Amino acid sequence: MATTHKTRMLIIGSGPAGLSAAIYGARAGMAPIVVQGLQPGGQLTITTDVENYPGFREVIQGPWLMQEMQAQAEHVGTRMMWDTITAVDLSGDTFVATGDSGDFYEGDTLVIATGAQARWLGVPGEQDLSGKGVSACATCDGFFYRGKKVVVIGGGNTAVEEALYLTNHSDDVTLIHRRDSLRSEKILQDRLFANPKIKVVWNKRVESFLGSAGNGELRAVKLVDTLTGEESEIETDGAFVAIGHAPATELFRGKLAMDDAGYLLVQPGTPKTDIPGVFACGDVMDHVYRQAITAAGTGCMAALDAERYLAAKEFAEAAKVEA
Known about the structure:
With 323 residues, this protein is α/β, with parallel strands linked by helices. It has 6 helices and 19 strands. The protein has helices spanning 16-27, 62-75, 138-141, 157-166, 186-194, 292-322; strands at 4-12, 33-35, 49-50, 60-61, 79-81, 85-89, 95-99, 104-112, 116-118, 134-135, 149-153, 172-176, 198-201, 204-211, 218-225, 231-235, 238-241, 245-247, 278-280. Helix 1 packs parallel to helix 2 (62-75) and helix 1 runs parallel beside helix 6. The longest helix is centred in the C-terminal third of the chain and has 31 residues, at 292-322.
């Protein structure tokens, strides 16, 4: 039998953004409910070494960090629900989400922290070598390739920015693109072509990622020429897939404003969407930084704004009664 769960703050998503919102919301007395979704803990649960999250001098593991965040959220009063939201109704005074379980979740405020997923090539070796030389985030993992040879796959802004960033760690960066021209902004292209640490390989498609028989780490990428069909290999220590991200916003299409790429639009400098009482935080609204620490920061902002929204609403309702 379906159950209806009510809360002052309903949070969809359980990565750094959602759990940070939960911690701040619980401490503000809003008794938040977090619906965890298909990937509890978010992308950090599939990340091994985390070296750039403040507060830890040694390398930590992504899954452990998310376990600690969840434990902290629960400790201060958050309820964690093992469910996946399949539909939302944002038209009423309270916001209603329907779970795959059949249960309903009603929130006086709604925090959307559903995140975004990196787009992958879907070629052999990609997932097997993920964390073993294949990555989708140079800012996250570039540090591990200091002084090593790396490649970046893609031709848009993300790929060019990743290649430029990697020159902070490597003197041998190769950008692999399947066409003969880049799609990135001209100013980024100018910086790329002017950088002596970067070379570009044109008209090449990645056919597969090849691991070493010895240690199981990435050793090369196999390429196919898109014009001639000729096969080749580039030996490398690290490969960064940079073909964009896909925000998890399908639930909100037609219900909340979003940009052409599907990221939720918020008021500048805030997590406020175009519906009062609905807030978006983390990678679902941030296509620029996409870091755990920035996601956590916007989660904090969402909780603070949710508390202020409720306080203002309750004050206005009390004033009406007195009048």
